[in-house]
Amino acid sequence: MGISTVTAGRIRKGQLKNNNGEEEITYMESLPHVALSKTYNIDAQTADSAGTATAYLTGVKTRFGAIGVDGRAFDCPTSLKSKTESILKWAHFAGKSTGIVTTTRITHASPAATYSNSFDRNMESFVGINFKKEHLDQGCKDIAAQLIEENSFINLIFAGGRKKFLSSNHTDYGSKLKGDRIDGRNLIEEWHEKMKKQNLKHKFLWNISDFNNLKSGQYSHILGLLNFDHMDYETDRINKIPIEEPSIIDMTAKAIEILSTNPNGFFLMVEGGKIDHGHHSSNAQLALNDFVVFDEAVGQALHLTSSEDTLMIVTADHSHVFTMGGYSIRGNSILGINLNHVSNVSGLNLTYTSLLYGNGPGGIKPESVRQTNLTNLKTEHKSYIQESAIYLKSETHGGEDVAIYASGPMSFLFDGTVEQNYIAHVMAYSACIGPYNKTKYSNCHKKRGVIVRSFSTKLSKSKLNLFYFCVAMWFQKYF
After folding, report:
1. What is the C-alpha separation between 406 and 412, in angstroms, rounded?
2. How many other CB atoms are there within 10 angstroms of residue 371's CB atom?
């Protein structure tokens, strides 16, 4: 979610309200503090989500493709000696409730960085390809197993990805599909048994009916895996009859309602992961429609929390090679052909769109050079793939900096251009947790995690919620 996505998403949001679009103000852009984040991995100029998520969630930059380990990890044995701890775990150790909301699989790179440690992001499940028996024999665990065996303390999960928790012997709850695992395990049942042994009120849910029936205070632990694989694009979700999945807006609101009952506050990560997927497909409409609902989730969080006790951060793992240009006129359809004051056609005398990709599925191939004009009817269709200069099966990330938007206690620390791993340190510092906990800094609660009002020498209350939106959104409440 680079700056071009924010700009195009802002216009898309405004145009869905029948406005020109350029004047729209998104919720994330209304946050008072802004900085730029340098997203590179230690071995990559243009990063992937595993390395970037590790940076902003653990405070340590790492290799391309690595999750929750530092740069010394390159295989199973070295990864076991190179683990990092995340802000989610620091929040848990401090007595806060913790939650993860994502529209991807819960084992996908960004959400996995909140709880797992793996030298290879593709070790989502024991499928015998990326994660093999030899890795198990060396003491490593696949990412799904790590979630259930080592991180069942997480209070709330709303995500997709049931197939990573079920074996090929088990039929999915909401379909006739079989799971991915080759070890015969049903990790969902194992989670249920683990909760029972600890006498914890818990709920596994896989459908929207169970989701809608959830109430605050019912359960201390909720495992919501709401799709067999990744969750649907918003464009597809709203067109299903009946609707099968909750929106990211609803999941965010429900998560806040449930987690906010903890008097010590909570940490919640919300990821709009399908924005990234839309871009990889070079389908701007899918990406931007998911951006719009992601921003509405930010708005819902702002409505349900207070900046006096909630640090909210909205940022991205990385950018994409997504561009917007062509001198288009004010109010031009952001998904349409480029209409401008200079020339509406290319050097080949053909119409073209304002939105393009540097590379991706819409790239130039000798057998498919376009000879005809584009029309808005075609470019505004949900399956239209934007054109690219270079053909690749999947569009790549962009290497430029991404924005950080923040509000709440200590949010003023986001200023200028910062390293991406700095984000985790601000979160921990503001909440007096992790490496900045009250044992090491006994006066932490008097100096940080609070807003100092200009008209008063008194500090506001010292509990803090942490809220992180990524695409990334992150949200943490103090106290």
Report:
1. 8
2. 7
Q: Which residues are catalytic?
A: 49
H or E element at residue 82: none
Amino acid at 95: G
Q: What is the mean pLDDT of the chain?
A: 92
Residue 181 sits at φ, ψ, to 5 deg, of -70, 145
Q: Which amino acid is at 413?
A: L
Tell me the C-alpha distance between 95 and 478, whole Å.
Answer: 11
Q: Is pLDDT of 51 > 80?
A: yes
Rg (CA), the chain: 22
Strand partners, 473: 469
Q: Are strands 473-478 and 463-470 parallel, antiparallel or unpaired?
A: antiparallel
CB-based burial label for 357 (10 Å; 0-12, 13-18, 19+) = buried
Query: For residue 229, how many other CB atoms are within 10 A of its CB?
Result: 15
Task: Tell if the pTM clears 0.85, that is, is over it.
Answer: yes
Give the span between the Cα atoms of 113 and 206, in whole angstroms.
23
- pLDDT grade, residue 451 (50/70/90)? very low
pLDDT at residue number 371: 83
| DSSP codes, 375-432 | -HHHHTSTTPPPPEEEE-SSPPEE-S-EEEEEESTTGGG--EEEETTHHHHHHHHHHT
Say whether pLDDT at 47 is over 80.
yes
CB neighbour burial string for 165-187, b if at least 16 within 10 angstroms, e if fewer = bbbeebebeeeeeebbbbbebbb
